[in-house]
Amino acid sequence: MKVFLVGGAVRDALLHLPVKDKDWVVIGSTPAAMLAKGFQQVGKDFPVFLHPDSHEEYALARTEQKSGNGYTGFTICSTPNVTLEQDLQRRDLTINAIAQDEHGRLFDPYNGQYDLSNRNLRHVSKAFSDDPLRVLRIARFAASFAHLNFRIVQSTQELMSTMSKSGELAYLTVERIWKETEKALLTRNPQVYFQVLHDCGALAVLFPELNSLFSILDSLRYYCGIDAIIHSLMTLSTVATLSNELDVRFATLFYGIKMLTSWIRFPSHCNDQLSEIDLMKKFCQRLHVPHQIRDLALISTECHDTIKNIESLSANSLIAFFDRIDAWRKPQRVRKIALISEANARTNSNCNIVFSQANYLRTVFTLACTIPIKEIISAGFKGEKIKEELTRRRIMVVDNFLASKNIA
Questions:
Q1: Contact criterion met (CB below 8 Å) for 363 and 275
Q2: 45 labelled as ligand-binding?
Q3: Is residue 12 domain-resident?
Q4: Is 140 annotated as contributing to ligand binding?
Q5: Residue 8 annotated as binding?
Q6: What are 178-224's pLDDT values in tens digits?
Q7: How far is CA 281 from the centre of its chain?
Q8: CATH of the domain at 33
């Protein structure tokens, strides 16, 4: 039995990146032999075992033969005579098909080190197209390594386009689609993920709602001469430098689209297309997006016009807005909406104006939160009267701020 370190651990070490998880491949063994050594088998589909001490994953070397549709349509062979080279051949990218033995020697039959040096994302073999999940994975890798100037080579791009047209993507479960998307949104350059999927045609299949919004944005070229798709993705790129929170990044993608469509007065025949909120709801419902992530996206997009005109609102309207977004119980929403607004500001040319809107939102909410409810209770207010008095005092303190601002 021989054991090799494989996959991301080898790749990241060669790139001088932190190694997070270690995966191992075992050559010349059997499930019975692994169990006899104290390993614990996990999963039913693949011969994967957990080490008795480190709990790291050890997988028997295997080959895969396409036998059905989707990413589960494979016949697995994991007999002891499967070689290391055969196991590495089934992997997605050459940079993920490098193995290292216990002495630190590298085994690289598919020139992964060359592609690491040249910053290439290249498929190992034509068997790449057997697994539709790889379209999403490669888009995610492109986002993960964009800061290192990695690019998808032309032949792999063409293969991804062919896969997007084949119908295989339809067999991916919504859970796997969202899982890859969630990971991509947390990379340094999440916009690259959506750009890659758009370019290879997968966006229309996997995210038809988002693709519809992008189609609306594409028409902006005719009306105002800007590449609005790139512009909206740049907003996502900007927010990634401001926040690593998943809900903020997800919400910014849709907020940026809403902002762009609000700039243009479309002809009447286009009005029916402009339903960002409905498309977003469909997107979230279909992919089972967690409620806390969905809610921020919906709230921030729905209140886009309010944020846009925030500095012209009365004290009553401002407090009513905070009531509407449940800010008193969930104050982080104000901070996050301000961040989303700021990301748009940094992307747009009128950044000074929108920056002031984000800061204004933070300032007003901070002032409104200074009213101590204990004083109201001590003053003898009870029941609903407490809430009414709290609202009155919040309006008053904000009103005083607005008055002093106007005088200045």
A1: no
A2: no
A3: yes
A4: yes
A5: yes
A6: 999 999 999 999 999 999 999 999 999 999 888 877 776 666 555 55
A7: 17
A8: 3.30.460.10
